[in-house]
Amino acid sequence: MDKGRISSMQMGMMMYLTIIATAILTVPSITAKYAQKDLWLSPIWASIIGFFTVIIVIQLSKRFPRQTFFQICEHTIGTLATKLLGFLYFTFFLIASGQITRTYAEFIKVFFIKTPVSVIMISMLLLSAFTVIAGIEVIGRVAQFFFPIFIFSVFIIIFLLLPQLEPSNIFPILENGLLPSLKGAIIPQVWFGELFLIVFLLPSLSDSKGMKWGIFTVLLILVTFIITNITVLFILNQNTEFYIYPFLSATQLVNLGDFIESIEPIIIAIWILGTFIKITVFYYVTILTTAQWLKLSDYKPIVWPIGILIVEVSVWGVPNLMVNNHIDITVFPLLFPIMQTFIPLFILGMAVIRKKSKSLEVH
After folding, report:
1. Which residues contact 347 (CB under 8 A, 6 or more apart)?
2. What is the 3-state secondary structure (H, E, C) of 133-162?
3. Of 8, 43, 309, 325, which is most buried with the most CB atoms under 10 A?
């Protein structure tokens, strides 16, 4: 369907930006509500889902090389069940894409108050649509170009914040035991679970290093989570949970005389770059899921209709920031693990059982 090829490294860069782009701003606040001063520990527990998900999808890919996710499902659970599963994933990715687009629009709205939310969303989706039409190779190259800019900017900002840090804010560690940090891991595990998306990218890889770069991506995401959470804790202390965008609020303290007084525009710029990749990847996967589910020979004719549906979901399904945050806290922590980790695990289990059954029949 898409004859383009990307390297495993490009896949890793795509997934890093897809996960960190939105998580870096909103997750510290949500995590702090449960983990308090142990919010830096929560990503460690949450990353277990990331490693687990990567191993599952890589094992599926090894058992069924170069096959799409739904072709794998047909081999393991049959055509009828695959049709139903395809509809579930189409709905899931449509809702997720709409929610991500709304999150982006709500953030931009803070700085462009008079700009209608619909204009912000449509302009981003238009740009994403043209990138999706160009194919996986273009998405991979764009991610490869943006990745060093994004990661360098984030760590330079953290470096500039060093004079403002209060390391004593981390104490006492585990004051109330492990439970608060485990509760704080419930939300970050949603983002780590998004590594499931690589199951749709693996057939397009030009090499066989998917496992290596998948695991490395989880580690890099984990390190970024821990560093940003610690930075926010060292600056905002226990007030972290009261900020919608704590990392952005922390960066407002950067002040290097007349040379650098405000780096908010830099934060906004790099966040837009990362979110563009995230929306594009989810858009592409939604299109790919729909085309594979309907057994289309080309995905390009459905790019614009699906784009319109994503706008509709982001406008009617997620009408404001309050509903958006409510979905993040109550719906996605249950829905995402089921769709991104446990269903693929079930498919892998069925594949193993079928292989054993066939081997027993032969003997």
Report:
1. 60, 72, 73, 76, 77
2. HHCHHHHHHHHHHHHHHHHHHHHHHHHHCH
3. 43
pTM over 0.85: yes
Q: Measured between alpha carbons, how far is 239 from 226 in angstroms, rounded to an integer? A: 18
Bridge-partner residues for 294, per DSSP? none
pLDDT digits over 15-67, tens only? 999 999 888 888 999 899 999 999 999 999 999 999 999 999 999 999 998 89
- Using the structure block, give the residue that is written with the tokens 């409510």: 326
CA distance 236 to 329: 22
Rounded CA separation 119/23 (Å): 24
Instruction: State the Cα–Cα distance between residues 240 and 260, nearest whole angstrom.
Output: 24
Asked if 264 contacts 247 with a C-beta cutoff of 8 angstroms, the reply is: no
At position 17, the amino acid (one-letter code) is L
Residue 282 near residue 96, CB atoms below 8 Å? yes
Contacts of 56 (CB under 8 A, 6+ apart): 341, 344, 345, 348
Residue 242 has pLDDT above 80, yes or no: yes
Q: Return the ∠ at Cα 84 (arms to 50 and 313), rounded to 5°.
A: 70
Q: How far is CA 102 from CA 224, 279, 345, in A?
A: 24, 10, 30
